[in-house]
Each structure stands twice: as structure tokens, then as C-alpha cells.
Amino acid sequence: MDDMNQLQALFGGTFDPVHYGHLLPVEALAEAINLERVIIMPNNVPPHRPQPEATSQQRKTMLALAINDRPLFTLDERELQRDTPSYTAETLALWRQESGPARPLAFIIGQDSLLSFPTWYRYDSILSYCHLIVCRRPGYALEMHDATHQSWLEQHLTTDARELHTLPAGKIFLAQTPWFDISATQIRQRLQQNQPCDDLLPPAVLDYIVQQGLYR
């Protein structure tokens, strides 16, 4: 049964295709901070980047195949049903509304996303809905690009993972997670050049890509 006091974390992205660089850091994160459930949410029309090559249905199927034997993850399809751009602030506002005011919620992002976070639509509202959990990347600076945003970061930072479980929202936690030098762009390029990708994504996902003739 779902415990309404349990920290629930959302992990969004284009997942075109999903790969180990998405899955393994989040699994390590879950172990480090005692996360029992991560909701993986593919978006349909990303506002800040080129449109996905695979269709919504294909990306959903690849995710379902990838997490089939990974009990940490559950799949949420709500953004795939939208035809308009998926703004994180709007999705998180709805998620908070559904969860009630007291439940601890978190949104998982990469460190590169944290550095560009102030450019996101209504970024300053997001911490009223949830915590941010940031997967660290070696070589990336931790300072924000301007002093106002650095002050915003420092105001919300916590080094105590227990706060993520006890407070409903408002904290930024920098997690030490392993970094895998894998990108969806790199996988698509390798597939176009008929190069092997076996070590980059789950076998069931690769089989599906080949079967569907994707990224050729």
C-alpha cells in the first residue's frame, strides 16, 4: 500500500532513448537517500530542446521495457497525453495538488539542469511544490551564473537527506551519484553508424529499437 507520508520522487525527461545514464545514477541515489519509489515521466513536447525522434508511444514502450525488472521505477504517462509544451512547474503544481499539502515530494534533475534552472518557466515556484534532488556531475561548477541565483541556491540547500523525508518541499539536495558518460545523442549516432550499443542501454530496449528500425 502507498504510504502517504513516504517521500515520492519524480524523474522527467525526453528518454529518446532511455539508457543506463538515466537509470543507474537514480538507482544509486535511491539507495543513498532511502528512496523506495521513483516515478519516471517522459515528456511529450519539450519546450527547451529539439523534438524527440521516436514517437511518444515508442518512448513509452522503451521505458516500460527498461523498468520491467527494476522495481524502483513506475511509469507515469500524463505528459505524453499533452499536445502542448510540458512545463515542469505546471506538472509539479498538479502533482502537489493530487498529493495534498503534507506529502514529501521531490524532483530529480542533473547538475547541468540545476545550472540552467533559473531559465525554466516559473522556476521560482517549483520549490513551493517539491524538493530538488540534484545528481552531481564531475567537472561541472557548482556556482550559479549570477549572484542572485547563487543566493537562491544557498538559501534552499540542505546536506541532510532526512529533511527530504520530513518536509513536504523547499530543499535542494546535492547527491553524490556515479556519472556515466552516456547520452541519447551518442546512442542515436552510434545506431546510425551501425556501431554496438550493448553496454549503453538495457538489452530489451536495444532489441525494440532494432525491431522498430529506430534512429537509422
Automatic annotation (TrEMBL):
GO BP, sorted A to Z: NAD+ biosynthetic process
Keyword flag DNA-binding: no
SUPFAM superfamilies: Nucleotidylyl transferase
Domain Cytidyltransferase-like: 10-190
Catalytic activity of the protein: nicotinate beta-D-ribonucleotide + ATP + H(+) = deamido-NAD(+) + diphosphate
EC number: 2.7.7.18
Family matches, as Pfam families: CTP_transf_like (PF01467)
Keyword Signal listed: no
GO molecular function terms noted in the UniProt entry: ATP binding; nicotinate-nucleotide adenylyltransferase activity
Pathway listed: Cofactor biosynthesis; NAD(+) biosynthesis; deamido-NAD(+) from nicotinate D-ribonucleotide: step 1/1
Keywords tagged on the record: ATP-binding, NAD, Nucleotide-binding, Nucleotidyltransferase, Pyridine nucleotide biosynthesis, Transferase
Enzyme class, first EC level, given as a word: transferase
InterPro entries in the cross-refs: Cyt_trans-like, NadD/NMNAT, Rossmann-like_a/b/a_fold
Superkingdom per UniProt: Bacteria
UniProt xrefs under HAMAP family: NaMN_adenylyltr
Function: Catalyzes the reversible adenylation of nicotinate mononucleotide (NaMN) to nicotinic acid adenine dinucleotide (NaAD).
The family this protein is said to belong to: Belongs to the NadD family.
Name of the protein: Probable nicotinate-nucleotide adenylyltransferase
Gene source species: Pseudescherichia vulneris NBRC 102420
